[in-house]
Specification:
This protein is α+β, with helices and mostly antiparallel strands. It contains six helices and 21 strands. Strand 9 and strand 10 form a beta hairpin. It binds flavin-adenine dinucleotide.
Length: about 300
């Protein structure tokens, strides 16, 4: 297993926001058996493990991560049986959408254009347009800390808004079974294309970002959840910047790495500023949706 592990690897290219320092140890398993071997190695050496999927919802500290960082993107494989689509944790959600359309299975197309892996989407219960990934899950297979494999069925767990059982346990998702609805492949493909295009039109991919920084706070306005982005814009923060970390003009809840030189510290300072300003303006303390990894000077 030692030969699979690299040391002092820059993590910036492994994140969508393009910031962050190095991993002390870094590995890219090709399948869940290798993943299991790496967990065993880390357990024996008592080195903590950090799991990284597409890195599209993650802010890594400039000083890096003093752990074994496991990049799951090599753990891939999608199979279809009837209306069940099984995807490995490292497959992109986009790939799952593409295969579901090919097989005439509807449901996932609404997530077309949402960056990241299947594992990351299930961990954070990613969602958009009023739907969340958990609505389509039949079961999730995961490795617990001791490396044993388990399967959790739909009626055995509770997902919430940007919340999953995996946020509360040190479990590593290896495979997900999605239960989908038979439909017309062409229609599914067309819908997926439309959702992808909507994101492109909104400017989602124009700059490095992590998508939404904050969860929409509890409560509704006009039957919809209060929008964190709207609260930020109303507090007069659109376009506000710390270094090259800037609140996107097109969406108050998105921070962009404007010219690629922003540091993780810039982004974190901007996040703290947004929280303080929104609290002052609206009396609402926003909660972050993104994941913070690594060594920070001040703990959150
Ligand atoms: C342009 C853009 C648009 C976005 N739009 C949306 C949106 O509409 N809706 C939305 O919800 N999000 C959105 N996001 C955020 C992001 O795409 C999602 O949260 C995505 O599901 C994260 O997946 P990932 O593989 O990149 O996760 P990562 O960022 O790699 O990891 C996120 C968390 O999941 C954990 N994790 C990853 N894989 C596993 C695994 N196999 N087992 C256990 N834990 C794991 C990590 O440890 C980490 O804590 C957007 C991001 C960008 C850049």
């Amino acid at each position: 297993m030692e030969q699979k592990i690299q040391q002092n690897i820059a993590l910036r290219p492994y994140t969508s926001i393009r910031t962050g320092g190095p991993a002390r140890y870094f590995a890219q398993p090709a399948d869940s058996e290798e993943l299991k071997g790496l967990l065993g190695w880390a357990n024996t050496k008592q080195i903590p493990v950090t799991i990284l999927g597409g890195g599209s919802n993650t802010l890594i500290a400039d000083r890096g991560i003093d752990h074994l960082v496991i990049d799951t993107k090599g753990i891939r494989g999608i199979t279809v049986r009837g209306r069940l689509l099984c995807a490995a944790c490292g497959d992109t959600l986009e790939k799952a959408v593409t295969v579901s359309a090919e097989y005439g299975l509807a449901g996932l197309e609404i997530f077309s254009g949402l960056p990241g892996t299947v594992g990351g989407a299930v961990y954070g219960n990613a969602g958009c347009y009023g739907h969340a990934v958990s609505e389509y899950i039949d079961w999730v297979e995961y490795l617990s800390c001791d490396g044993s494999l388990h399967r959790l069925y739909r009626d055995q767990y509770r997902f919430g808004y940007r919340d999953s059982p995996f946020k509360h346990h040190k479990w590593i998702i290896t495979e997900v079974g999605f239960n989908l609805m038979p439909s017309q492949p062409i229609a599914i493909g067309q819908k997926a294309k439309k959702y992808r295009q909507m994101r492109r039109d909104k400017g989602h991919y124009r700059y490095p970002s992590m998508g939404s920084i904050f969860k929409n706070p509890p409560g509704t306005e006009g039957g919809r959840r209060i929008s964190a982005g709207k609260l930020i814009e109303e507090a007069g923060l659109s376009g506000y910047a710390v270094g090259s970390a800037r609140i996107a003009d097109y969406h108050g809840n998105i921070i962009i790495n404007y010219d690629g030189t922003a540091t993780a510290d810039d982004i974190r300072e901007l996040i703290d500023h947004i929280r303080a300003t929104v609290f002052e303006f609206h009396g609402i303390m926003l909660e972050t949706e993104i994941n913070f990894f690594g060594i920070w000077d001040t703990e959150r």
